[in-house]
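SAMPLE LOG
Freezer: B-3
Tube label: C17
Construct: single chain, 282 aa
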Amino acid sequence: MRKILFLLIALISIATPVKAETIKLGIEHSDYLPTVSNSYVPGSSHGGYAQQSAPQYRGGYQIDAAQPNQQHAGFYQQSASMTVPRPQQPMIEWFQVPKSMAGSWSKKGDITLDVTDLRTGMKRQVGAWTDNEMLVHMGHQMDKAGNVWHVNILPSEKDSVSNGKQVRFMTVQQVCEQYTPSNLLTRTHYVITESYPNTGQIAEQFQQESLNHYSLANEAEMQNLSSNRVFTYAGQPMRDGTLQSKFMRIGPFVPLGQMNGIDLAQSLNQFLLSKGMAQLAQ
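STRUCTURE (predicted):
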């Protein structure tokens, strides 16, 4: 309970313009996100994702008022693990994860604790369960000292199923905000597409920024408290939600040699050398 209270979000009734939501670690949600080009949608032949400017995580953005003001009531929790990069020159990012969290995990769904409408400032307590099955892998390689490192090859996609809809997550950026031997805090920017599984027809498309705090309850159970801000495709903030998830361990950590044709051991060594950590390179 102390870990959950440590990261409870201070949600305050606000009116437009949106103020950044801050958790007790001093980490803020973005006020706005860049517009996603309608010519590039997840899974398209154009390569999946394009935006008008490089993503940043603090400050404001000019948004395109001509974009539809899409609505969405749901929030999603996603893992640090993603696959299937689409661009020909993907961005490769490494960050350290607690050794105690390394391995394979699965969850059945999420509990939405509360929701705040950022346009009206109205906040309501929810406590509702949402089916959202997901398999995640924490950690891909180990350095010379035995530290476990996780790789992101971005942009990347992962599919999930929620409330009878196919949900495609395209991760366009992820950073590790804080790491300790027993906790991990990440910030992730997604483009999310919901579609009907029988017809493939798109139901919703929107963006989401997630601040995920992972902590271990015990060796077999990992908890995630997540603050999620939903944006329209045009990057306009709509609502915040706090979610809680429980992951169960289903497999130990096993180093992965390659991902999408990339030699991960070599890639990690290059990363460590570039950061002045040659003593950790194999």
